[in-house]
Amino acid sequence: MVTFLAGGTGTPKLLWGADDIFGPTETPAVCNTGDDVEMGGHLVCPDIDTTLFSDGGILDRETWWGIEGDSTTTHEEIHTLADEAGVESGPRYLSDEAQTSGRRLARWRRFSGVAEFMQLGDRDRAVHITRTGLLDEGRTLTEVTATLATALGVDRPVLPMSDDPVATIIHTEDGPMHFQEFWVHRRAEPVIERIEFRGANEAAPTEAVLDALDAPVVIGPSNPVTSIGPMIAMDTFRTALESTPVVAVSPFIGDQVFSGPAGKLLTASGYDASTVGVAEAYPFADAFVLDTEDETKLDRPIVRTDTELGSPGDGARVCHAVTEALETIGAEVS
Q: How far is it, in rounded angstroms, from Cα 206 to Cα 139?
């Protein structure tokens, strides 16, 4: 068994087309939940859903978000009503009191559904409504995710990093904001002062996650700060990584990031915006997979390949390099 840490699109892209190398039933994906938001009363779990939709064969692979061919009738009508009412669009946080009352998993990330700032497809929204309803019936996020995996025909164990709330808050010159506002609405433009993983001190990985972390771990080419950072902000999670073989795929080629705000976030966290910075952020990683054009030298074993991802063949190629890196550090892959 090999366990993958999944945040953003990096790991779903890596595993796409790699079933012959890493069989889904023996390859759990532990997903970041720091990006989750409650929108109009419904819990949206972007990184969990990207993994579920990818494995379920319904992911929109043009955007790597949402369901392919999904309609947006409800989203459009929500904005029509807001426009007719003269309501200002954009992120509309609920009150401070509402942020921590009621459903624990929604803490610090509650937005009004009025003029919603994130586009949700209609089928996508049905997943969020079902998830929230099952949570309100008393099930844990881990249990709910397993139920959704069954409904979507997903064989891979998809595990939330925790059943406790952790919210990624970006502190900027314009004030603190949830990562989704920073990235989706503000396009990562505000100047970052610091990043907070709110709730991480009280959160803990589930037993299912800790069992998965007993196996060798692969970190896909995710954003080290906001995709993996919420996981390793939990002491027990980080300690588990320190005692198991870990291979990381860099999301950079030298100082050039493939996509997203990883460079800006690494710099704000005190790391170099490069593969070197990724290695500094992952002191527990035993080996790295780098692009053939990445000349970075590290103090740990390196396996090089073309790390660009976008097709099933790409994922298989990089996963072959991952297996080589695991063999290099003597990891036993069952």
A: 14
CA distance 256 to 334: 35
Cα 47 → chain centroid: 4
- Gyration radius (Cα) of the chain, Å: 19
What are the residue ranges spanned by the domains of the chain? 1-37+46-64+149-334
Task: Specify the 3-state DSSP secondary structure of 20.
Answer: coil
What is the C-alpha to C-alpha distance for residues 325 and 323, in angstroms, rounded to an integer?
5
Residues 6+ apart with CB under 8 A from 167: 34, 36, 107, 108, 109, 178, 197, 198, 199
Greatest Cα pair distance, the chain, in angstroms, is 63
* Tens digit of each residue's pLDDT (9 = 90 or more) over 16-52: 999 999 999 999 999 999 999 999 999 999 999 999 9
Model confidence pLDDT, tens digit, residues 169-222: 999 999 999 999 999 999 999 999 999 999 999 999 999 999 999 999 999 999
For 53, the token pair is: 């939709």
pLDDT on residue 334: 60
- What does the angle CA 151 – CA 152 – CA 158 come to, to the nearest 5 degrees? 95
Asked if 134 and 145 count as a contact pair (C-beta separation under 8 A), the reply is no
Helix (H) or strand (E) holding 233: none
Q: What is the mean pLDDT of the chain?
A: 96
Per-residue pLDDT at 283: 97
Name the residue type at position 137: E
pTM, two decimals, is 0.96
Q: Which fold has domain 1-37+46-64+149-334?
A: Rossmann fold (3.40.50)
Name the helix (H) or strand (E) containing 252.
strand 252-253
Distance CA 278, CA 298 (A): 11
